[in-house]
Structures are given as structure tokens and as C-alpha cells.
UniProtKB/TrEMBL annotation:
InterPro entries, alphabetized: MULE_transposase_dom
Superkingdom, taxonomy of origin: Eukaryota
Organismal lineage: Eukaryota, Viridiplantae, Streptophyta, Embryophyta, Tracheophyta
Domain MULE transposase: 20-75
Protein name (Swiss-Prot/TrEMBL): Uncharacterized protein LOC104232777 isoform X1
Pfam families with a match to the protein in the record: MULE
């Protein structure tokens, strides 16, 4: 089952604790609605939205929380560019076991030591982004949250379509009003001509 939670950045100043409270509220309701009593079989994947990781840790302490590799790579490539590095990162992410993963990370270090060091940050533990370290009982090897983004894109397309239809209706209404006004003006002109003829002018 795929579930999506989306936040709107309606208030850029609403950060930290407030976002954690918002995510906690959402996740508490989600847990209640889905009757989740034990979260050991659940995996969350995110691009590290403010407050979400702490809220998941509080409410679903046994759940696996993964980093979206695509978002992580976007941050990585701001300092470490190039197709070779990109391929190495994705190979490490897709590695199916620890031996392959370690080899990928060695290759990355041989290519660019600073790029390899980037992954030592505590916000990027290996078990949150490489398939080789995901829990096997969850039976999900997704590395990115593209499904959510595709869903968002689909919703946006529907919204644009609805707005276009609304604009089309508005334009049609304006045209009809204009035609009605034109008809009334022609009718009044005709009445005026008849009146003038009757008056002998």
C-alpha cells in the first residue's frame, strides 16, 4: 500500500517545532485510522522534511525511515558533479548486499575522497539510502519517492485542467453576454428605426 503525505509551504517561518507538531498530528491520525499498533513492518521514505523524522521516531519507533536517494543526490551534486560520481552513488544505492555496497563506496573514495566523505554526515546513515542495508522483512526496495511526485504532478495537471475549464466557461459567459448585449442594441436600433418611420421623420 502506498500512502502519501504532502505539506504546503504556506508559511516559510513555520519551522522546527511547529512542523514537528504538524507531522505528529498527521502521523498520529494516520496510525489511528490504519490501526497501526506495531510499526516494525513499515517504511517511510522522505526528503527530510522539517520535523518529519522526529515525528516518525516518536510515533513509529520501530519503523524504517529512508532518505529519498534522488533528493540526497541533488544535494550531493551541488558540491560533487560529474556523471562518474553520479553513477557511483546510484550503484551504491542499488547495491543488493554489503559486499557490493562496500566496493561501490571504495570506488567512490578512489574517484573523489571528498565525495566519499560527504556520506559520513550523521543525517545520511547508510541504512537510510542503500538497498543493501534495508530491512528485508519490509519487502520494499524503493529508493526514491517519485511515486509521490508523479501523483503530485498528476494532481497539478488536473488542477490546471479545471482552471482552464473555469476560464473557458468564463470566456464563454463573457461572449454570451456580449452577444446578448449586441442583440439588445440591434433590437433597440430596429425599434428606433420603426419609431422614426412611424413618426415620419
Amino acid at each position: 500500500m502506498l500512502l502519501q503525505g504532502t505539506t504546503m509551504k504556506h508559511n516559510q517561518r513555520k519551522q522546527g517545532r511547529n512542523m514537528r507538531e504538524t507531522w505528529s498530528w498527521f502521523l498520529a491520525n494516520l496510525g489511528q485510522d490504519l490501526e497501526i499498533n506495531n510499526s516494525h513492518h513499515i517504511a517511510f521514505i522522505s526528503d527530510r522534511q522539517k520535523g518529519l523524522i522526529a515525528a516518525v521516531r516518536d510515533l513509529f519507533p520501530n519503523a524504517e525511515h529512508r532518505n529519498c536517494v534522488r533528493h540526497m543526490y541533488q544535494n550531493f551534486k551541488t558540491k560533487h558533479k560529474g556523471k562518474a560520481l553520479k553513477d557511483m552513488v546510484w550503484n551504491a544505492a542499488w547495491a543488493s548486499n554489503n559486499v557490493i555496497f562496500r566496493k561501490c563506496m571504495e570506488d567512490l573514495e578512489n574517484e573523489d575522497k571528498a565525495a566519499r566523505e560527504w556520506f559520513n554526515h550523521p543525517e545520511r546513515p547508510f541504512n537510510t539510502w542503500t538497498r543493501s542495508m534495508f530491512r528485508t522483512h519490509i519487502k520494499c526496495d524503493m529508493l526514491l519517492n517519485n511515486l509521490c511526485e508523479n501523483f503530485n504532478r498528476w494532481l497539478l495537471c488536473v488542477l490546471v485542467l479545471l482552471l482552464n475549464l473555469e476560464l473557458l466557461n468564463l470566456e464563454l459567459l463573457c461572449v454570451l453576454k456580449f452577444l446578448k448585449l449586441l442583440f439588445v442594441m440591434k433590437f433597440l436600433k430596429l425599434l428606433l428605426l420603426v419609431f422614426l418611420r412611424e413618426a415620419g421623420v
